[in-house]
Design a protein that fits this description.
This protein is of the alpha/beta class and 320 residues long. The protein is built from twelve helices and nine strands. The N and C termini lie far apart (62 Å).
Length: 320
Amino acid sequence: MFRKLLSFLFLACVLTAAQAQPYPAKPIRLIVPFPPGGGTDILSRLVANKLTEVSKWTVVADNRVGAGGTIGIAEAARAAPSGYDMVMGQKDNMVVAPWLYKKLSYDPTKDLVAVAHVAYTPVVIVTSTNSRFKTLADVVAAAKAAPDAVTYGSPGNGTTIHLAGEIFKTAANIKMRHVPYKGSNPALMDVLAGNVDLMVSSLPSAMAQIKSGKLRPLAVTSASRSTSLPDVPTVAELGYKGFDVSTWYGLFMPAGTPREIVATVHDEVNKLLASPDMQAAIHAQGAETQNMSSEQFSSLLKTDYQKWRGIVQASGATIE
């Protein structure tokens, strides 16, 4: 009996000590819902590596890809709310996919909690420097002369980037053939090889190839020019007034994650994003940081969630 009591007391002490350990007491998994090499992967690994380096945490990026990024988000939504699983979400899978996919296992406004806004970026329309298209007007003229002959790639069906292409087709009153890929990198490789005419891409995905001179940016889709590509016109400037499509990236954890943990991760990430070297690294990818509280980021999510409901419904796009 005495031995049992000692064993019980020892176990209680061990459990109490474990609970008293400061967070994080073990590695944190950062789910990346797109393949290696794309914009989401690049930004996720920047955050994971810098948090590991500066905060002395162990943050491990884990690519869980498919279905326009919804598989990785669904896995995060199902994870235990312990603070050891988070995901890099963006407009694609957080505010567009719920209105596109008829069957989705998560509700981003209920099953996940917004932790930290990481970056935002316009979408860019690019082609190979060997392409016959020198301007966006060239694309429009070719598409009007031969409907569906011009092809454009995207990271996948149901992404913000895919819909940016569809919205542009409507605005320009043209027909182009969409070619979906499983992530940005394979789409970019096919553009460079000349297998598809254009790509609608996030700037972080395309920036390295733009800088190397292999890709020609024709236009950005945001309301104002990108500070990373100041010489590239906006779609709106080229005659399509009011055209404005951009995307954002941010960290989310499963709903029910303790507020103290959410606050700790938010503070560490925002401290990291405020550092000049991290800002430079993100800016080099064509993205920009924006300091937000978790509450402000949650509000942005909910606002965009409702906004894109109307955009998707107006487009008529659906995915089984």
